[in-house]
Amino acid sequence: MRVFVTGGTGLIGSAVVAELLGNGHTVLALARSDASALAVEGAGAEPVRGALADLDVLRAGAARADGVIHLAFANDFSSPEALAEAVAEESAALGVLGEALVGSERPFVTVSGTPHMPGRVSTEADPLSFDGPVGGRGRAVTEVLDLASRGVRSTAVRLPRTVHNQGAGGFAGLLTGIARQTGVSGYPGDGEQRWPAVHALDAAVLLRLALERAPAGSVWHAVADEGDRVRDIAAVIGRRLGLPVESVPPETYGPLGPIFAADQPSSSTRTRRTLGWEPKHPRLLEDLENIQP
């Protein structure tokens, strides 16, 4: 099928585009710059020039496609205001993409984070939170799933806090970046909190399977590592960068501080059993060995 992909040149999106093309699909990919357009063409897809805020472009892209995969998000965590703007921009984009597909029975795959369930491992049956710094994303994804009653084969793939490839990406990548800036490989609190993770190439397979097979209104977890201790993640980062490993205040991470400090393991048992998805690429702690000093 012809698939319209937003965020197709990012760490996850580039893997998704390659996965789709390698399995017989054609791809239209949103490209907000000349460099992105060249990257899309180089991958073998067709660029659609525009940004996530260009709602008319999104509407037209969805109209040309047999299905949509939404991945784009302005990853600006510099302040609560910037994060709120990113969430609002994405919510508007999801609304337009969804409306363009109403009544068509075409697939619409979007993403969110895995939920945080205090005291236990989260599963596909757990709801997303509407509270906190990214609560708006939970509301927007829920609205996408509700489109199942309006003739859209909508589905959500929940991505863990770290989607990685060659040591880069996700919350672990943010820890690496902050470590380079501060000279300390830090972790919030005692570092016993656990973060789920998945390799980008494994996540791409699940996103394709969701596009091809997932029933309307369904939810899936792209989780390979149920939960790696943040202290262990910081230890690998510190060793690779030659930096001390220490506990730091959650405020170090700005608006993401409360999320960074939370224990949030997650399961993908139902996803693996139902869709036959099985991660095959390196786990997070192994992949972090690719960090260059």
Automatic annotation (TrEMBL):
InterPro entries: Epimerase_deHydtase (IPR001509), NAD(P)-bd_dom_sf (IPR036291), NAD(P)-dependent_oxidoreduct (IPR051783). Residues 3-84 form the NAD-dependent epimerase/dehydratase domain. Residues 112-133, 258-293 are annotated as: Disordered. It comes from the Bacteria. PANTHER family: NAD(P)-BINDING DOMAIN-CONTAINING PROTEIN-RELATED, PROTEIN YEEZ. This is SDR family oxidoreductase. It comes from Actinomadura yumaensis.
